[in-house]
Every structure is written in structure tokens, then in C-alpha cells.
Structures
1.
Amino acid sequence: MELDILTVKSIIILLVFGISLGIATYSTWAERRLAAYLQDRQGPNRAGPLGLLQPIADAVKLFTKEEFIPASANKWLFIFGPSLAMLTALMSSAVIPFGSTLEIGDKFIPVQGIEVNIGVLYSFGIVSLGVYGIMIGGWASNNKFSLLGAVRAASQNISYELAMGLAIVAVLMMSGSLDLRKIVEDQHGGNWNVFYQPLGFIIFLTCAFAECNRTPFDLPESENELVGGYHTEYSSMKLGLFLFSEYVNMFVASAIVSVLYFGGYNYPGMDLVADHVPHNLATAIGIAVMFAKTFFFIFFFMWIRWTIPRFRYDQLMSLGWKSLIPLAIANIIVTGCVILLFN
Amino acid sequence: MRLSDRAKDVSDKNMSFAERIYLPAIATGLGVTIKHFFKKKVTIQYPEVQRPVSPNFRGLHVLKRDDEGRERCTACGLCALSCPAEAISMVAEERKKGEEHLYREEKYAAVYEINMLRCIFCGFCEEACPKQAIYLQSDKMAPAFYGREEVIYGKDRLLESKDKTRPTDGPKRRLTATDTYIDPIAVGYNRQLKK
Amino acid sequence: MQDLPEVVRLIPITHYLLFASALFCIGMLGVLIRRNALILFMCIELMLNSVNLLLTSFATYRSDAAGQVFVFFIMAVAAAEVAVGLAIIVMIYRNIKTTNVNLLSRLKW
Amino acid sequence: MAEKLFYFLTFLALASGLMVVVSRNPVHSVLYLILTFFSLSGHYILLNAQFLAAVNIIVYAGAIMVLFLFVIMFLNMRTHNEPMAPIWAQLAAVVSAGLVLMVLVAATKASSPALEAVADTDSFDSQIGLVQTLGQTLFSQYLIPFELTSILFLVAIVGAVYLGRREPGERNSF
């Protein structure tokens, strides 16, 4: 029995990795199609039906391009940077609870890569490491544009991490736990955190955009001022890893937003469903709901990208430090007062 | 006077609270973009769907034959001379006995080449031709190339086939270094000298 | 007794003491031989961390949360210290274009 | 298992700690220091102190070392011309560090019987490293120090901003 659980666990972990990679792959396709649609165009539709083979064609192209390392670059760090970016992006998906429990034999196995009781801290810590890939890659390129991109990424991530952490604190105060699964279970049915924490949700979402280096906060790679930012000197699959890690990050951020604020695998009427269908089927419906929410937020990320222009750097900093952090602190205080009043 | 009613007066008044928190503006922007998401796309799927072209559109060249299936071209070189891009070159040859069913005139073009990378599809060759031998089709465009050797169209690809359908059965001979052909530059130069 | 963490049963606390002392001495060595103010700063962090590890291990072995709380405080103080320290180093660099501590002993520029 | 992990993490921490000291490139030093912090976090997890492990990663690896890297990039310290201490001073440093290590090891050995005695096993609580327990201790017994820390942070922020500000008339001189 012990072995069985181990097998199921490793299958779940592999599945989580595979799914995050697959979703990231198809996010590139979805992003291009969506961008085209928002601009009255068609987007890539030649490779396979609806252009669905486009990501594979892109990958083949990136793999077969020339590997190039600039002569004055720091060779090992130049390779290490994109690998680290990809590694940290993938690691953070491990603690996300994608669903309730699966009944196998007489055991209930939670649908989650690793169960830790400090899941929020874990994902937060991994996210804060994500900037190293960009910084090291940008610095090792030995190019002033790359360096500027790297420095921008570092200061942007540190600034927005603060507001992000403070926004999460209000959620933690409500659930009283750092365990992502417990946070999800507290939002049973339609009792989602977003109804109690609308301000915290907006702050968190804004910071998630900044942490993923997505427009309107894509200053580290702003192509019309810094050429390509931190990945100016990169080519072939090393560039691919950088671009890919952005999409993995986007998937993880969307999943965490839906877990923290939109109830994860909870949906209104889930008790009714649970009464009438077998346990595993109910779990599967929950997983589907979770993915629907995640996909919506991925869509939202792209929608925002093709709507809002990029911030200027001083605007970015003043938004982070002068608006989001004070707002997040006020949010914490109000949440604390309300909790004190009603308990 | 206002040219359109879309102009807005510029003002430097302070932003209201709603404007300063940006969120309503962002929501409006999202609304605009999502409206475009559902709009009809204007893209034309080119190889499958083609835009209609004008009947006097100047596309790919063709060397015409007359009603009896004889080549009309007499290799006078006027097309090459009139070509501003100097894309046409040819080698003339005399018609032998027994070839009357092949060539209409006593002189014909043994080699006729158009460099499609140089050609600007101006149609001057068509205008210059006294025999109505070269013609720019309105329904066919010069295709894209994969290699430079495909760029030069010889008689094998230019000449109309006997039953007026392509591909042609024209000669496959191409220009060689030993050929003496009408050099448009030299001709023009001579003409200037004569003046 | 079965409540004991595996590490407490298997590894004597002296191992942690020796490990922490070694780490501390490495940090000290760095402070002594390097001349770059930033590297010195990093070596000091190394020494701080060896002390953190020691406090944590004692807290676990003695089952006393106070030790871990102290580590938490040390981390907070270290963060504050780094913020100010790096600002000072950047200021020094602006003024004398080097972070070599030998040149700082003049105390003027 | 725990034993093997302990020795592996110890080796990793000591080796990367040594690399911090000996690498000539400051960026390499920073990266080795991050590796050291990771192995220390591994030790914290072994010691059942998950909260400290996470905070160690977030605070040290995620914030402090990013600041170090940031400053190194800003000061453009890629040149390898950092002067080392003279060779006799290096020798003296190694000798004195070795002596300190010797003293510490000797003191540990001398007091090891007293140290080995684990606190009374009956009241042993393996849950002290968890967030709940630490939070209880932090917000009851150590509430005033905790609040003082926030004042310390405020002072540090003000100090850093004051130090980093540009003086009137000064041009950006990086």
C-alpha cells in the first residue's frame, strides 16, 4: 500500500510538471492567436488545424537555430541563467492543490504535487528566486542593454514582492493557515475570498503581472528601449527557455490567483454534486473547475497585455511603493479590525 | 473648422479620483479590445482566397503564338530595348526550311529569357512589341522563388503551348557564355553614339 | 520518545556545533583575506548564518521555541543591516570609485 | 537517510562557503553564498524548522542576495583586479582562523557529554518549528522585541534612503 501511494504521488508530480509545460506551450499559441483576434487578424493558422502545431514548429525552429555565446560573455553563467529561470518557474507549480482527493483503494490521495503546511511561503520563496535567472542571464551577457534589463527586473521584483506579500497576509489572516489546501477548503462552495478581499485581489493581481514581467510591467525586456532587455544576447533554445519560463510563470500565477482568491477547485453547488456522483468524479469536476479558472486568468493576462501600454519606470516604482504597499497595509488593518469585531 | 468629430479639446485640469486610480480606464480599454475579439477578421487567406485583380493587371509574362500555333516573336529586340530594368535578353536565329509551321517570321528567338528578379512588371515590353508576341497575363503572378536558378525564366516557361495551356513544350535551351545576344546596353549606347 | 525527529536521534548535537564552528571560521577567514567591502559583507553574513544554524539546532534539540524566535530576529536585523550597509558601500563607491577596504582606512577623500 | 542528508548538506554548505571566500569574481561569490543558504535551509528542514527554512530562502536568498547582486552589477565589479591582502597577511589569516577553529572544536569536545544529554524526552515537542508554535511565542512572549524590529526597519529604510539620495547639484556619478 505504501508503494501504491508513492506511485500515485510520483504520477501526480509528473502530471503537474507535464501539464504546466503543456499549458505553457499552448499559451504561446493562444497568446499569438488572441493577440491577432484582438487586433482583427487571424494569427498563426497554417501549421496543423487552427495552427495547433505551431508551438511544435516554433520549438523545432528554436532547437535547430545556431547556439551562440558572445565572446565576452561569462560562459557558464550565460547558460546557467535561462536554466535557473526555467527551474524556478517549474518548481513553484509543485505545491498548488489542483483538486480535492482521489480515492484509490481505501486511501484518499490529495491531488497536489507536494503537501507542505507552509505552501504559501514555499511558492512565495520560489517566486522570489525567479529573478535570479533574469539577473544572471542579463549580467553574464556583458551587454549594457541586458544589464539594464537585469537591474530593472531585480528592482521591480523586489518592490512588487513586498506588496504581494502584504496582500497575501490579509488572506492568511482570514484562513489562519499557510497551507494552500486549507486556504482552498476555507472557500467551500461559492464562499470565495475575492468577495471579502477585492482590494487584496487587485493588488495581488497587479503584483503577479509585475512578477511575471508581463505587460504593462514588462520593463526588463521592453523591446523598444532596451532591444530585448535581459535576453538581447540570447538565441536558440536558451532564448526559448527564457520565453518559455515566462509562460510557465504565467500559468503558476494564474493558478495561485484562483487558489487564493477564487476558491481553487470549489464551485457553487459542489455539495449537491458530491452527494450524487462518485467521489473521484466529483474530484475530477473540481479539477476541471480549477483549470477553467486558471485558463480564465491566463486569458486575462493576455487580454491585459494587448490592451494596456507599458508603464514608464518611475511610474512603475511610484505605483509599487506609493500606492500598492500603503493600500495593502490599509487592507491588512481593515481585515484585522473586521476579524476582531466579528469574532 | 473640424475635419472630423473625433477631435478632443486638450485640457490640463487635474484628474478626478476615478481617473487617478486607472481602473475604470483599464476596464474601458479591456472592453474595447474584447469588442474587437468578436469582430469579423479582415485577413484574406491568400493562397486559398485571392483578391480580384483588375483586368489590365500586369502579371507573369507569356510568349504568344498565333492562330496556327506559330511563335509570333521575331527577336527584334525592341522589348529588351524598352525594358527599363534590363531584364530581357535573347538570342536570334534564322528560320530554316521546313520550320515554317513553328515560327511565323523568318527570324525567331532561339533563346528568350526574362530575369524575374529584375522585372518590374511595367508592361513596356508588351507595348513595344510590334508582333504582339509578349503579353503580361492579368490572372497569373510571378511566384516566389526558393533559389536563384529559378529566377530566370527561359522560353520553356514563358512560351505558350500549342493548345494554349501551360506548361509549354518550348525549347529548353538557355543562354550560355558563348552566345551572342542582343545586349540592350550596347544597343542603347550605339544609338546615342549615332546621334 | 518516538516523537523525536530522526535527526535528533541519529546525529549528536556536537556535529552541528562543529559544522557551525567550521562555517564561522570560513567566514572569518574571508573577512581576513579579502579586501572587497562587498565580499567582506558577504562573509559576515556567512558568520551570522552559522550562528543561526547553531541557535536553531539548539532550539530543536532542547525543544525550546525561543531559539528559533531569536533566529527570526537575527534575520530581521540582518536584512536591516544589509539595507544600510549596501547604501554605505554604494556611497563610498560614488566618492572614491573603489570598494577596497584598505583605502577606506584614510577616512577621507 | 537523515544522517546521509546531514553529511551531504554539511559538505555542500562548507564547500560553497569556502568558494565564497576564494572565488575572485564577486558574482560567483554571491551565487556560492546562495548555495550555502540553500543547504542551510535544508538543515533547517532536517531540524523540523520549516518556517525558518522558508524565511531563510525568502529573506536571505530572495531579498538580501538580490540586493548584493544588484549592487555588484551597478558598481560593475566584473574586473578581477581586486587587491588581496599580502601573502604574509593571508598566511596569518589562515593560521588565526585555524586556531579559532581549533579552540572551538576543543571546547566542543570538552563539553560534549554535557551537550549530548538531550532535554527530558517526555516533554519533548517536535512541533516547535511549525508556524503556529512560533507565532504563539513570537506574539506573546516576544511581542515587544517584535514591535521594536519594525521600528528598526523604519530606521533602516530612512537611513538607506538618506544615504542613497543625491546631494543637491551632484551629478549621477555611477
2.
Amino acid sequence: MTLDVTGLRKSYDGFDFGPVDLSVGGETLAVLGPSGSGKSTFLGAIAGTVTPDAGRVSLDGRPLTGRPIEERRAGIVFQDGALFPHLTARQNISFTGTTDERVEELAERFEIRDALDRRPGALSGGERQRVALARTLAADPDCLLLDEPLSSLDAPTARRLRDELHDLFAALDLPVVYVTHDRRAATVLGDRIAVLRDGRVEQVGPPDEILHRPQSPFVARFTGTDNVLPATVPDGDGASVELRIGDATVEARVEEDVPPDVWACVRPVRVGVSLADSATENGTALRGTVSRVLNEGDDRRVLVSISGTDHTLVASVRDGVDGGPLAPETTVRVSIPPAAIHVIPNTNCPDGSDDVLED
Amino acid sequence: MTLDVTGLRKSYDGFDFGPVDLSVGGETLAVLGPSGSGKSTFLGAIAGTVTPDAGRVSLDGRPLTGRPIEERRAGIVFQDGALFPHLTARQNISFTGTTDERVEELAERFEIRDALDRRPGALSGGERQRVALARTLAADPDCLLLDEPLSSLDAPTARRLRDELHDLFAALDLPVVYVTHDRRAATVLGDRIAVLRDGRVEQVGPPDEILHRPQSPFVARFTGTDNVLPATVPDGDGASVELRIGDATVEARVEEDVPPDVWACVRPVRVGVSLADSATENGTALRGTVSRVLNEGDDRRVLVSISGTDHTLVASVRDGVDGGPLAPETTVRVSIPPAAIHVIPNTNCPDGSDDVLED
Amino acid sequence: MESPTERVAGRFDWLSVTLLLGAVLLCYYLVPLLALVVAQPPGAVFARLTAPAVIGAARTSLLGAGASTLLATAFGLPLAYWLARTDGRLPTLLTAVVVLPLVLPPVVSGMVLLTVVGPNTVVGSAAATAGVPLTRSLAGVALAQTFVASPFVVVTSKAAIEGVDRRLEHAARSLGKRRFTAVRRVTLPLAWPGILAGITLAFARAMGEFGATIMLAYYPRTMPVQIWVSFTTLGLDEAFPIAVVLVGLAVATLVVLETLGTNPLE
Amino acid sequence: MESPTERVAGRFDWLSVTLLLGAVLLCYYLVPLLALVVAQPPGAVFARLTAPAVIGAARTSLLGAGASTLLATAFGLPLAYWLARTDGRLPTLLTAVVVLPLVLPPVVSGMVLLTVVGPNTVVGSAAATAGVPLTRSLAGVALAQTFVASPFVVVTSKAAIEGVDRRLEHAARSLGKRRFTAVRRVTLPLAWPGILAGITLAFARAMGEFGATIMLAYYPRTMPVQIWVSFTTLGLDEAFPIAVVLVGLAVATLVVLETLGTNPLE
Amino acid sequence: LGRGRTSDPPPSVTVLAAGSLNNAFENGLRPRVDARLQVEAHGSAEVARLVAGESKDPDVVALADVALFDGPLHPPWYAEFATNALVVAYDDDDAGGRRLAEAAPDRWYRPLLSGAVSLGRTDPDLDPLGYRTLFVLELASEYYGLETDLREAIPRREQIYPETQLVSQFETGSIDAAVTYRSMAEERGYDYVSLPPEVDLSTPRFADRYATVRYELPSGKLVAGAPISYGGTVRYDAAPVRGVFDRLTNGTYLDEFGFVVPDDYPTYTGDVPDGIAN
Ligand SMILES: Nc1ncnc2c1ncn2[C@@H]1O[C@H](COP(=O)(O)OP(=O)(O)OP(=O)(O)O)[C@@H](O)[C@H]1O
Ligand SMILES: Nc1ncnc2c1ncn2[C@@H]1O[C@H](COP(=O)(O)OP(=O)(O)OP(=O)(O)O)[C@@H](O)[C@H]1O
Ligand SMILES: [Mg+2]
Ligand SMILES: [Mg+2]
């Protein structure tokens, strides 16, 4: 089973989607992208609920474009569920004539057994979402299009369902397009991730590549690499180069030759922060002043103004890992392992900072 | 401004909410709870869209229960937005007669300027959610009730808005009840967090207390303490005790006397995993075998079966922090700092594992 | 404790104001009807219940109104669906056409219908040859009532179907159901309150129809014709008890209709 | 490339089938109407356009139907809202009451109305003393038409209002708007297609109403009365051109109604 | 249509009749014929129009005014089979009605003139009863030798009702008095004032006298006063139809229902087919 999308386009007043070309085999393609970047439009165009202006969609060679929705066999879970309000959850799920056992099994799987005999109006947000998921799976589609199917669920439930879905997708061997804004879900479920920006695919690749080797500052920032700093490479040969960021210098390991102007990308978790007087750590060290500390539960987000530059680095620091209190105004030493720096040539790529702002 | 809720109850067929007593001053109360635990019911009862069976709600001493919705001045953002489908986003926001400037300002703040002249049917999921938020804020309510207002937004946008809301709530000085399933948002925004379970408040307290000193296994598990193991305390005096988990022994620091039967709670990030032959680390060490490794982007989730017990510990390990590959079947050493273990008396608290399953 | 003024304010219910206004209209319906019903000695009404002419008329009325309501639904629902789901100016234009039969005075409707299905027309004589005369027959009754009453089904159902989110139909079709099935199982049940309203109106109008019926089919007599005949031959005292029977008959049928056709959403 | 069979399957559109069924009904409306319109020499129709009697009747009809549609909307909408938003058995019962005026043959409606607003009744004589006679006057026309036509507004609007999510009204009220404002700005606009359908039906029915009008107000003559008078005095050739004028008048008004009352959601 | 239905016994015969004949036909004629009688009643003028315009196609037409057989209907022949008289019906429960009763038999017009009695009548443009009411008033002025012409003084437009409304108004007491046919007053049990034969249009003998009064119809046609005469014709000749027509024109039932059948009736005008006039 392969889902092929070629030259797909759709224009709304003020928004242009595409052209998008993608091919999804018996795998899960996670689609990430900012709100309003065209994710739902993309799924709709495959399912047939949105009429594209141009382009072709085919499933295993069978063309879908121009066909009525019901002949596409593309199971879509709408972002808002689109449950039938006059039917109970059970009737919604068995809408296609699914056997009782299968309904029970899906309900069990998605933890909605207690909700089965209620109408959507009497379901909680998360219950509704799970019923929608079960309804689509019950129809045995030839490909699966899921629009943020777990967004209304609490974290533990979402994690359990994510794992359920992981096993299910593996067992089904269908093309699955999974729109999500949860980076973790995308990483865990996606065999590949596509990052959408303003209706176009900015990068597609395996999760590791997307997260750790983004090809543009936008993808970097969008996938959690909060530190994207303009840098120059005075001396760019060999596997190890020196990067100049303002007055400071850091060492980075690179795989190819790099141009003189680059973006230096570092994920916050790879930024080590230690009190200025503690022992020198592995990797290049910078000095700076803590400007803000945000408690995010397990992690603290530490913003450090790097001395000699007007840049701020974001570090994600775990309680008790580095020890010692980190309060604003503390002078700290910032260490970045050379392998943690990803370098993007700063040639024709736009900055992308308009789209993804920093703290 | 204080929002007081006393003895609030509501029964549906198969679900009982309450009795709930809570008091929210000029602060933000984040409400966390599994899907279907009654979060929306709670907000609805305050706003007047759900008629409670019993109990009183008052705002600054002014009783709200029994009053018509429009006199409550409780601004609610419904979980699904409940936008007026026949009005554009702009008309939705200025429904109460808000000035153009204020609408523009809110639109700017919530990044929906481009969407202002579209009807809800032509908005993306995230745009809709932000319009709903802006609409409620534009009405200048006396208290704010937000039902998962950022759930449809991509991570960077959600983070930016979360910070906007943080500043806004601080400036408004109103009682804010913020229902969310994002533990981080709850931690960042909530002055206090209330954890709901099956319609009842299981624990209320500042974020740190909820996350690090849960009072029940349920709260522990629900807020990310995935490791909740039954343990016995052979010798329970002093600040430092020995806990027996199966055949293994770990050291823990406690603040009060503990009974002989306890739950030992450890957040995955506090569990250190190192190859069995590496140098002994700080804290008590256990031995075990890696049973599964999940890549979650920045972190890897490592499941370790602890030798001498039938328990599995979950560790959240950061790339490159401990070094070395961690594959299933590897024998590892697990270390838990004594201060990282939180002990809950195992007396009358139910386990809670029915509600929150492990990986 | 709530202060007294707050209580009063809380109790002053706008819903009651709507009922107050509505009650004016309700009285306008009820008072004449009650005047009619109350003025008739129950004995006179019961006597009519057994009069063969009245029984025959009741049978004809029920059969005719039933048949025309069925026809109106069978042909009107598809039309309503098409009008609701098609874009462009054509549906607006055709909706106006649907309303036109209401504009003609019923007697005129009857006369123009005669020009189409009358015994001397192509259609009429063909049907008569086939043994189904279209005038002076139950078929004539049904045809007259269909012309006059079916617009209610079309116009009301159209509005109701327009109110159903198209996306739900899309959702049903994305589950692999044909459009027809999606409409039958999703759109129509959701539009049901409106459709039922249309059917109710059509049935009631068919029961009360007189002008067109008397042109197409004086015989077999429907209740309104029977009432009129009784009135012209024997006066009000004879006619009004039959009107009461008609009202009773209609109420009974409407209650059955409401009960069988309960809104599936409630 | 798509195979030819796939193409055909794709083109076989169920929507067209609904139109096919609907077309049967449309023809049933259109053919008699066209027969009527086409048969009249345009000259004859235009001559009627200047006849003082016809102009007077057109005026009366438009004023009467307009007034009764206004009355029906002013009182019927609140009633419809109340019926739609109140729980329990009472609304169901009252809805049946609303439908009853349709069940009565119009002549009977006229007769029973006379027992309530006739010149010798309390209401009628009081009004006449106040200078507003309720029979043989424009007021009488409007009263008769209101009785017969207003149920359409109530029943159709009720169904439409029921279809609007109550939560949207809650949302509007939670923003601090009074219930009345919430209904006016949210519920009614969303129910508008249905309400407009009801208003259209009521107006059309009022334009075509004959039986009850002739009982309450023979003078001033409405178009249907004028058509009937022309028919009995001078025959079809005189009456049908006036009927064509009536149809034209109604079409014009309906088009205006449709245009002014465009669905705010479209 | 009667001709085609010989197969289903008993044969049905359709009669389109003036409303004032309806009761006599329904309850007097129907039991006396073998055929299945289908009587349809409308106003006389309406009946004539319906038949002339081919909207209705009955076997037999029976009207309350033979003038209609000179247009809009133009049958080759017709039979006159009964006459009727105009009377002033009044409501005895009503003050106005009682005043009229007290003034009877010779001063019945006084309360009408003084406006103490509300009179109802039908539209002279629409049906014969309407213009006959005007004839009666004019003939009465002459007969009683009054200075005021009653036809000028009494009629006001407010008195005009369509026939159905007139009856229901009278029966519900909204109108004190109405000029109506004696047959109708009899069958409904109304109290009424009989008028002198010189006035009441019942007597062929006074035909010349009646002919002095006239009314112009909207069509421009001038109708002259004449004795009320019910006329009928057969449109589709067939055995059962003839049977019915024979009973219709010769039946004794007419007297029971308040009609007058002069001795020389029925009389025939025009090209009467063989065997009809026996
Ligand atoms: N019917 C429409 N008419 C006009 N504009 C539309 C329509 N539907 C969507 N849009 C616009 O197109 C853009 C893409 O919408 P889409 O729903 O595909 O976004 P999305 O990526 O799914 O966003 P989200 O994450 O917020 O759901 C948005 O800016 C939206 O406002
Ligand atoms: N009108 C109703 N009738 C019957 N049961 C209801 C009704 N509304 C909600 N419930 C049930 O009550 C429970 C609580 O619902 P609620 O919407 O408050 O949950 P929630 O905490 O908001 O969940 P979620 O996070 O999924 O939105 C659910 O099990 C739901 O099915
Ligand atoms: Mg979307
Ligand atoms: Mg909820």
C-alpha cells in the first residue's frame, strides 16, 4: 500500500497550500507544522473533503482525485471528531456495520467502554476524540489520516493510546498520515516526519534527522532546537571547526565543508550550565549571565545571556543534575559538546524567526 | 476577587462529580485530571452552563449559583470554542462591543490577525481556539475559566501563548481556573494545581508540591512519577531510611516518620542508568536489565527490570549524558539519589494503577 | 444569602416573556376552536361519529391526506435535499416555484389542475382508461391535496437540511457509505425535527383542504366537503359537529405522528 | 489514467437522482402554472394591471398578507422560541394546537373566527367602537390570514430553533449578553433559513387565502376574492388573467423576501 | 361522465346544482332515484361558469335562474321545474328581528328603513338572490306606494355578504334579517315574513309587473325581473340520466322542501329531445 501525492495545491483567500509531493508506504508519516500551516487541508484533500485546485493523489496506483469520498477508502479522523450527534458512541463506532465484538475490542483498547452508550453531547472532550478514532478504525480503511487524534487527552492517557496506536499501525501495514503538534508523539509514532510551513513541506525525514539535523532554521526552531544563532566560520576545514558567535568561540564537529556564514543550532538539553567556578566540563565553554529561570516541572529552562554577544542561549536543565542553585544574575559557564552543534549553511534559507519566536 | 466553590455536586448517569470545595483568589488554579474526570463539568457549573445538583459558587461573596449565566460575569473558554458560526472571527471577538483597537490588540497577541475576517468554518483548529480565547478576554469578565485553551496549538505557538497568558493573568489579578492536560503549562501557569480524579479533588497545592510530593499514588503517576513501587520500611527512624523493594534495598530521605508499608515514588528523570561496569554513582544503586528503550526525541525512555523484584523502573535518559549505548538486554546499574525518593504511606490510599497504567 | 432584589432579577425570566407574546397567538388559535368545540352538544358530535356519510368522509380524508403526505414526502424530500445541497442561483429560483402553489387560491389551483389531469386531458384520459380516474376519485383527492400541501414538506425540509453540517455527511462517506446511505442515516435524522414539521404541516393542510379538492373531486367526499354540504343543506347546527369530528380526527393523527416521529436527538 | 468504467461510476451522481425525483414534483407544480400563464394572452394580463378593481385588490392583498406575516412573525417567533426551548410535554401539546387552524377548512375557520371577532361579539364591537372594525375591513383580512397562515411561522421556526446548539446561546450569555440579545444575535440568525422558510410559506399562504378571508372580509376585496368574483360574474377568461397577476405579484414579493432575507451564513 | 360508467351498477349520475337546490336533491331526490346520484352544489352563477369553462362536466345542470341558460350557458333546451318566493327571514331571538316581526305583514320595511334592523343580502353581481333582493325592494316601493324608493334607501354595501357567510351570520345571530328564498327559510326553520305575490317574484302571473325592474351585471348584461324559475337540462343523454331528470323535474319532493310547483310545470324551452317531455 502506497499513498502518493503529486503536485497537490489548494488556494484559499489569503492562504496557499502546496504544491506538495509526498509518498507514504506502509509506514507512518507524522506531519508537524504550526497552526494554520495547512495540515488539515492536506488530509482533507486526500480524503476528498477538500477539493484541491491541482495535483493528484493515488493509493496503490488507484487514483483518488476526482472520486467521490466514499470510494477512496481513506479513513480520516477529523480534528474535531465530526461524530454523529444523534447516535451513541457505540452506534458511531459500528456505523459501518462493525460486529459487536470489534466495537467492544476497540472500546477496550481506547478506554471508552463506560462511554459507549452515551451520545456525543454527553461525552467529555477526550472521550469524543477516542470515539472518533475508534469509528475510523472500525471502518477498515485502506489508509489512515489522523488529525491530532490525541490532542484532548491528558498526558498519561495520551501516552497509553500513543503506544496502542504504535502497535496498531505496525500491525496494519497501511499508509498512515498522522498530524500532530506533539513532538514526542511524532518521534515515537512517525517512521518519518514531514514539517509543513505555510502550506509547503519544509523537510521530510526520519525523526532523528528532523530533530537533530534540521535543514533550515525554521525546522530547527519548530522541532525544539531553540538555539539557532548566526555564526561565522573563520576556518572551515576538517571534521572540527571553530564557530564565532559574536566575540565568543565554540568548537563544532561537522560532516561536510561549511560556508563561512552558518546557523549554529543547539538543542536546549545539550546545553550544559554550571556555576562559573565549578570544574571545566567537556566541550567548548562560554560564559554568561542567567537572565531567567522557568520551572517546567522536571526541567528548568534557563536563559543565559552570553558574554561578548547579544545572544541568549536556552538551556534545559534537570533538577539535581548539575547541582547548585541557578538564580537570575548568576554568572555561569555554558558548555556545549562539539557533537551537539548542528550547522546549517546560512545562504538562501530565511531565518524563520518570524514564525517561531523565542522566550 | 475570590471564587469560592463549596460542596459542588453534579450527577450524570454513571458519573458523579463532587463534592468539590475550592477557593481561588487572584491567582491561577490549574486543573489537571484524566479525560472524563469532570474538569469541564466543573467549569460549566461555575459558568452556569451546567446546573449543579448541590453546592454553592460565589465570586467575591456574590453568590453565582441559581443566577442566569449572563449575570455571573464568568468568562469561559469552552473546550471546543463554541464560536458563533455565522460571525467572522472579528465579529466573534467584538461580540460584546469591544473597540476595534482592543480587537486588534488581542488579535496581535494571539497571532490571529490574518484570520480576523474569516468565519469559524474557514479557520484552522488552532485559529479557532485562539479566537475563542480572545473573545472571552474581550468581554472583561470577573473571573476566567479556560478549558484546555491551547490544546490544538503546535508546541512553539502554545509555548508563546502560554507565556502571554502568564503575563496577562498576572496583570489581571482575577481568579483564573485553567483546565489543561499539559503538565508543563500547569506548572508554568498555575499558582496552584488541583488534580481531579473521578469528579473529586485528589490534591491541591503549588506545582512543586504536586509534582514532587504527591499525596497518593494516583497523583504521583498522573503527574509524571511513573515509578510508584510498593516498599516496606524495615527500619523507619531518622531522616534516612532503608526501603525494601522486593529483594533490593534503596536508601531514601524522609521528613516524617513513615509506616512500615509505603509507596516509593521516583520521577523517571531522577533515575540514573549506567552500564553495569561503569563507576559507582552517587546514591543507592540497583541492578537490572533493560527491557525496552523508547526514543522520545531529546530523551530516551528506558524500562529496566530490577533484579530480585518483579518491578520495572522507568528512567528518562538524556542523550549523551550517561554515554554509551543502551540496548534491550543490557545489564545496567540503576541509581536513585535518596532525595529523589518520595514516600507515600500505603495505608488507605488505593493504588491508582487502575487509572494510570504503565508502559 | 441572596438579596431579595437579586432574587427577583433572577426570576424575571425572558423565556416567560416569549410565552406571554406567544400566548396571544395561542389564544387566537384556541378561543375560536374552543368556541367551536364547546358550543356543540357532545351528543350531536357523537351522533356524527356513526353517520355513514361522516364515516365515509373521514375515511376519504384520512386516506387522501395520508396518500398526499406520503407522495409529498417521497418526492418532496429528494427535491428538498437537492435544493439544499446544490449551489448557485437555480435552487433559489426553484424554491420560489415550489412556493407558488400556495399563492394560488385553492379553487384556481383546482381549475388549473383540471387543465392538466382533468378527464379530457391526455394524462387524465390515459389514466381513466387504465382504470385510475384522476378526478372524482380518491386519486383526485390525493392529487389536489398534494398540489396544495406538498410545498410545506419541500420548503421546511430544505431549510432543515441546510442546517445540517455537510461535514457530517462527509464523515459518513469517508467511512465508506454511499451518499444515499449517508443522507439516510445522518442528514435526514439530524434534519428530522424540520422534516417532521413539514410533514405535519402538509398533513394538516391536506386534512383541511377544500377549494382544490372540490374542483378535482367533489366525490368521494372529504371531511371539509362533507362539512360544506351539511352546511349548505342543513345549516351550521349540522355542519359544526362534523367540524368537531374533523378536529378530533386531526388531533389524534397529529399525536400519532408526533409520537411515531419523535426527534431521534431527544 | 482513470479507466472509463471508473469515470462513469464517478459521474453517476446520486444528487442527480434526487433531482430526478424532485423534478416530478416540480413538474406537477410547474405544468399547471405554466398552463395557466401561457394560456392568457399577455394583452389581457396587462389590461388587468391597470383595472382599478385589480389594483385595489392587489393593494389589499399585499397589505393584508404583509400585515398578517408581520403579526405571525412578531407573535409566532417568540412562541416558536418558547416551544423549542422548553422541556416537557406541554410544548408538544401546544404545538399540536398551533397546527389545528390548518386542519379546519378555511370556510369553517372563517365562521368560527366570526364567533370571536364578529361585529356582535365583545371583541368585535369594542374594536368597531374604537373605529377599527374587525370585519369587512383590512383588519379583517389580516385577521383571517393570520389565523390561517401564522402556524407556518411557528411550526417551521420551532424546528429551526431546535436545530441551533443551545451551547452557542450559553456562550453568548457567558459573554454577558442578556438572553434576549443572545437569541437575537445568535439563535435567530442561525435558525434563519428555517424562519425564512416559515415566513415565506406564511406569506404565500396569506396571499392565496380565500375561504376564511371571504367570511371575515368580503370587502375590501383581496386578489383571491377578486378572482372569484370575476370568475362567477364574467367567467374564466376574466378570472385567469387576474390569477396570473397574482402569481406575478407573489413571485416578485418572494424574490424580494429571498433577497432581503439572505441566509447570513452563506 | 355518466355515459361511461354503465359497467358498475348502479350507474352514477352527476348533477351540478344551485346551492338552494342542494338540500332538496340530497334529501328529497336522492331516495327517489335508482341511480347513484352525485350532487355538486355551488352558487348558480358559479355552476354556470364552471360548466361553461369546462371545469366541470356534469350529466345534469340545475340552476336557480333560467336567465343563465341564455348565457353563459347555452343549452339547446331546458326545463323549468319549480319556482320559489323571496321572503324576509328574521331572527326571533333578537330585538331587531322582533321589531320586524311586529311590523309584519304590511310594514316590514319600516324597521329596515329606520336602520333598527341589520339586514343581510348577497352580492347582486354574483348571484340571482342578490339582484332579486333589489327587485323585491323596488317592487315593494311601488306596491305599497311609498315615497322613498326602498331600493335606493335600504341597500348599503355593508349588507353584502357571500352566501355562505350570510347564512352563518344569520344563524349565529350577527344579522337580524335576511332576504332569502322561502325554501331555505322552511328547511332551516327560520321565522320569516311572506311578501305579497306582486313583490315576491314567485308568480308567473305577475311576470309583466316583475319585468319593470332591472339590474345591470358587471358584464354589461341587463337582467330584468322575472318569476323565479328553477331550470335544468341534460348534457349527456343516457337512460339513467333521463330517469333522474324525470324525477328531478316531476317530483313531488319539491313541495316538501318549500318550493312551489305551478300546475303547468315543468315547461320546456328549446329543442327538447324526444321522450323527455312526456
Ligand atoms: N474554507 C476555508 N476558507 C478560507 N481559508 C481557509 C479555509 N480552511 C482553512 N483556511 C485557512 O487555511 C489555512 C490552513 O488551514 P488548516 O486548517 O489546513 O491548518 P492546520 O495546519 O490544520 O492548522 P491547525 O493546527 O490550527 O489545525 C489557515 O490559515 C486557515 O485559516
Ligand atoms: N450531559 C452529560 N450526560 C451524561 N454524562 C455526561 C454529560 N456530560 C459529561 N458526562 C460525563 O461526565 C464525565 C465527565 O465529563 P467532563 O466533560 O467533565 O470530563 P473532562 O474532565 O472535561 O474530560 P476531557 O478531558 O476528556 O474533556 C464523563 O465521563 C462524561 O462522559
Ligand atoms: Mg488543523
Ligand atoms: Mg473536558
